[in-house]
Amino acid sequence: MNNNKLGAVESHFADIVWENEPLTTSELIKICEKELNWKRTTTYTVLKRLSDRGIFQYIDGVVSAKMTRDEFYSIQSKNFVDEVFNGSLPAFITAFTSKKKLSKEEISEIKNLIDSY
To answer: CA–CA separation, 47 vs 15, rounded Å?
Structure first.
């Protein structure tokens, strides 16, 4: 699902939708005009692009998410591990922790997650 990668501007737009959904296209246009300095056409273009990717939907003038923010980032995370670490979560964790020391609380949380599976 490489089509779910978002650039910085698309990510900001997605956050606007997720934080305000459901919202009318008129409301979305006003928010994007204020926060992103976009014209109506730009808002529609990005909405269509992300709707075509299956992230959002636009039905009868109402914009809503087809997947939650957590679902979206879960897919992105899985794809990253698959692409960069050949699907190996231990390889990812090794690479991640080689540059960042985990706190005792983080270690405990990770252990609890593993135990719950």
So the answer is: 12
